[in-house]
Amino acid sequence: MSEQVHNRLAMVRAERKVSRQALAEAVGAHYQTIGYIERGQYNPSLDLALRIAEFFELPVEALFSLRPFRRLTDEVYGRKQ
Description:
By secondary structure, the chain is mainly alpha-helical. Helices cover 56% and strands 5% of the residues. The protein has six helices and two strands, in the order βαααααβα. It has a two-stranded antiparallel ribbon. Helix 2 crosses helix 3. It is globular. The termini are far apart.
């Protein structure tokens, strides 16, 4: 069974002003792979997910989840799901 892995990669990348190319080079991936992950077209391996999380100095669960993430406005302003 293959589940979609949801992610906040594009948002974090934009916030930190990191290009796909720069992230890809830092984690040893192809820049197109980063785009596929961001669009939900490819699930990263555990190794790649951990390398990406380490690059951003975030816990892996801040970037990737098996369930859709809550909208940030809901998280910030405390709206219940």
